[in-house]
Design brief:
The chain has about 375 residues and is mainly alpha-helical. It has a domain of about 240 residues. About 65% of the residues lie in helices and about 0% in strands. Strands 1-2 form a two-stranded antiparallel ribbon. The longest helix has 29 residues.
């Protein structure tokens, strides 16, 4: 499960440069009347430069909820059988943040620097991951049983090159198997999906901007269409009596959550909410939070919840998108303030490290 966030763009030399964009005008959402659109958070005191994304502590709160769900699921708590769905919350959040970052950078500079983006991703993600792979390899070599030793090399290579999800899928390594010692790197399948998205999606964004510009309706239609196609492929390929791990691991079937998050960024881009609209969005976000937690409680892994593969993951992603939307837009309301409490924010800020290290520690302590 990815616990990554997207860093704000670095300050740019031409902060006054802007790119044209469609303005979404709906009830309770207003464009800037002073000169076209203005950024929805342009008046936010946390915005330190025109090219930076504002820091939203409530988003760290969402990260905390998601990583806590996954850790509790891996710890085997009986009352949270669907905690593995915290991964999907992270996928939605990542899709939203990377798209919002690109839109802001283009509005600021008129272009996108993919090399800078990929370099920032590498500096942020690789050290912790590679350190965990190294420690896991050393532990497995000298402490673990023979079965784990035979698998760790392939698992480690797949993890370091961010293809672990495909490695496990085509090696028929079930995510849900209770037999045999688990790999300390099994959880990196989700990090691989996210990194594949980070590599491919920016190229598609550049191509799309060249072809369409920033036509909001076209982007939303394309991204939602891609998410629906991903969910449909999962439903079609799912075999009720078989092991669903291949559908669970596949980038093609799990892209739905990332694309829903990306579509959300386009929906919210360059809109300004009045207080009444913000209150409605808070209410929608509260429903999303209740739904997400409900999925954590009622869903089961493996084939125990076939509805997940027949639209359930899509509903989880939509619920998470509602929550992310409420947490990412000012003014702050009760939900946003609750998500921004200090303990949740503290956990959210270290959620990537918690995710990377928690599973191998569980495997070592409870083999």
């Amino acid at each position: 499960m990815p616990a990554t966030d997207v860093d704000p763009p670095e300050p740019h030399a031409v902060p006054g440069a802007t790119a044209s964009a469609d303005t979404a005008v709906v009830s309770g959402v207003q464009p800037d009347r002073a000169g076209g659109e203005r950024d929805a958070v342009a008046s936010d005191p946390l915005v330190r430069s025109p090219g930076r994304m504002p820091y939203r502590p409530a988003l760290d709160g969402i990260r905390a909820v998601a990583v806590a769900a996954v850790v509790l699921y891996h710890a085997g708590v009986s009352w949270l059988p669907g905690g593995f769905l915290g991964v999907d919350v992270f996928f939605v959040l990542s899709g939203y943040l990377i798209t919002e970052l690109f839109l802001r950078e283009r509005s600021t500079t008129g272009q996108l620097s993919l090399t800078s983006f990929w370099a920032r991703r590498g500096r942020r993600l690789l050290p912790a991951l590679y350190a965990m792979v190294l420690v896991s390899g050393i532990y497995t070599r000298f402490v673990a049983d023979r079965g784990q030793r035979g698998e760790i090399r392939g698992d480690g290579i797949a993890t370091m090159f961010y293809v672990a999800n495909w490695w496990y899928a085509f090696a028929d390594r079930s995510y849900f198997s209770a037999f045999g010692p688990p790999s300390p790197l099994r959880h990196t399948w989700s990090l691989s999906i996210e990194e594949q998205f980070y590599l491919v999606y920016p190229l598609l964004v550049v191509a799309g901007l060249a072809a369409w510009g920033v036509k909001r309706q076209r982007w939303i239609a394309a991204l939602v269409g891609g998410a629906v196609a991903s969910a449909a492929w999962m439903a079609i390929s799912y075999v009720p009596d078989g092991d669903p791990s291949r559908d669970f691991y596949s980038t093609l079937t799990r892209a739905q959550a990332l694309l829903i998050g990306a579509a959300l960024a386009w929906v919210l881009h360059r809109i300004v909410l009045d207080r009444r609209a913000a209150q409605r969005l808070e209410a929608i976000g509260a429903v999303g939070l209740v739904a997400v937690v409900g999925f954590f409680v009622v869903a089961h892994d493996g084939n125990q919840s076939p509805w997940l593969y027949r639209g359930g993951f899509f509903l989880v992603a939509l619920s998470a998108a509602a929550l992310v939307a409420a947490a990412s837009r000012p003014p702050e309301g009760p939900l946003t303030k609750a998500l921004a409490v200090a303990p949740l924010v503290a956990l959210g800020r270290v959620s990537y490290g918690v995710y990377v290290w928690h599973w191998p520690i569980f495997v070592w302590l409870w083999p």
